[in-house]
Input
Amino acid sequence: MAEKLLAVKGMNDILPPESARWEWLEGKVRDLMTRYAYRNIRTPILEHTQLFVRGIGEVTDIVEKEMYSFEDRSDKNGDHAFLTMRPENTASVVRAVTEHNLLYEGGKRLYYMGPMFRRERPQRGRYRQFHQIGAEALGFGGPEVDAELILLAAALWNEIGITDWRLEINSLGQPEERSQHRAQLIAHFEQHADMLDEDARRRLHSNPLRILDTKNPAMKAVVESAPRLIDFLGAASLAHFNALKAILDANGVPWTLNHRLVRGLDYYNLTVFEFVTEQLGAQGTLCAGGRYDYLIEQIGGKPAPAVGWALGVERVLELVRETGQSMPVLTPDAYAIVPDAAAAPLVLQTLQTLRAQGVSVQMHASAASTAEGMGSMKSQFKKADASGARFALIFGENELASGCVAVKPLRGSKSEAAPEQSLRKLDEAVAWAAILRGRT
Ligand code: ATP
Ligand code: MG
Output
């Protein structure tokens, strides 16, 4: 036998029955987004590398070391391109919104779901292909939209039964305010240079704000004593932040102020926030976002404000799993028992009719070739039981000869409509389909 090929490290298969949990979450999200009037957007996985370099920022973990990038082969005309598998979706959304001029008649509320790629060290809650669900509101500048997005995320936790979450918020102010803070921050860290780790020293002059985001416990003291951004905010920035807090309070959404919350991506201003949980160990951030009023312009669009968040699907689902909620188990309504493959044309015709009526039917199929047959009735009934179906449809020779199929309730599933095995006319399938559906 040939050598077995395995998946790429840090990239997971999502298999049934676990995939049902993913579909369940996606369904909840679609329903919720619709209620908040957010519309779905789907952008390509591959973008020009430059989009992320410009959008996310050169001095970020993502752009410095986590991107899957490659040089594309030349087209016929000699064009070639540096491409990157999207590490996040905000830059792509902004690119698409700009490219298609979606803001021409006002703001847009959008959401996405899909895989993202970052070359990180794989561990619990951290993968190289992972999935995000995100919501973005572009073309709106007020704090009420920041609040709407936070309320939307909180509503999602509620819908999916997650209660162990904490909302942390901060304001990064505007670029001028940040640059004043930055000077003081650098001075503070230079004064305590001996307490900085290598990463922090490297960032000191390129991206000192990110030092506040350190996960190194040895730097706790030097980071806690650092000058706080909030003390540098002007009246307008403070008013924006206070208005957001007032809306959260009015809606009973508890928040805590985290002065060290700066986010890993460069493009944020004013509001930033994270939903965190204590239940997932080190990878406890479920959802993160904030305002990015300068990104659209940075990517070449007409200046417009924007705000959004992204949640990590793997982390959220791990938390859902811990709540012990049972997921809907996917079982067919009926299992078709086919003693003789020669009946296949008639069998499939009937099943097509039933499925068009909303019945879920699993057809018996044999691993063996036609010549070897479909397997004994006994083994077929065993499979029918294992499938969880409530009915067996027996397409036996005698039944077919009279233009019928036998409908047999399985296990304890005898329904009032069909307590015992009964014969049903093939050409009347539309009429008796409701019995199999078990819901009328
Ligand atoms: P972290 O601090 O955990 O690395 P981040 O700041 O890099 O997160 P964002 O870029 O804001 O994360 O992405 C939003 C969310 O996507 C995160 O809060 C997290 O839930 C999820 N996420 C990010 N990176 C990964 C990954 N490598 N594997 C799984 N989920 C991830
Ligand atoms: Mg990260």
